[in-house]
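Slide 14.
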Amino acid sequence: MQIDIDHLNKVYRGGVRALTDVDLVVPNGMYGLLGPNGAGKTTLMRILAGILRPTSGTIQVGEYDGTTERGRTAIKRILGYLPQDLGVYPDLTAREFLDYMAILKGMDERKMRRRRVEELLELVSLTDVATRKLKTFSGGMKRRVGIAQALLNDPQLLIVDEPTAGLDPEERIRFRNLLSDLGGDRIVLLSTHIVEDIAQTCRRLAIMNKGRIIFQGSTADLAGEARGKVWAITTGGPRPAGDITVVSTMNMGATVQYRVVGELADSSLATPVEPSLEDSYVWLMRERRAPLLSASR
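Slide 15: predicted structure.
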């Protein structure tokens, strides 16, 4: 299956433009959507999920037209969605909550529903705490309950919006590993502002800024965008000057080592380094390129 988005626009009341001519192709497997808060990622996810309607443009999810009522209904049947803020019932246990969500999704046969709930509790490593009330769960545990409810109908399209925001490092790693295992024969669309989440889970991605797609391609293609623009500078003197962004600073006692992205006023004391995904992301966001940059150009 594949998602094809063509010239998608979303304008809210008052002329607030959230999406501008979004063109995007999302293939099967894990796919990352990266961008700062306010870039338009959540608006795009909500349109894909059928919660919002676009102002103009087309969306094709497999054989279904996401701009028609019939198409949106069909997409919802094959969709699993974990929004940024999932409302849970704090006085229900994890097992009770998943059973209730399964009923809402039309899983009427009790034996099959219970079997599916137990499978998912095992998948997200919550079987041992399945009888605890959700109000006692940590943020990471609630996110795992959230991904379990999104998988109840074994969706062909799984949309996950900012799943690791606010999690501690251990839970973030656990959640990233869980998402990676889900890629298989479905589309898993991961929307985040955290570069590391994309680097650890996705081979292909798109970057959004101010409602536009400014890059789409592989992680290797993205790393190449900043080649020749990333430098290491070790100095005991003043902070490096020029049209640069300091990505990291390491105090080494008598000297300070800077990793910078941009154009240096004087590169004689700088060593070029191979860019990381974060470096290239910083470079692209500095450039604020409006037209689509395709790695296949």
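Speaker note: The chain has a mean pLDDT of 89.
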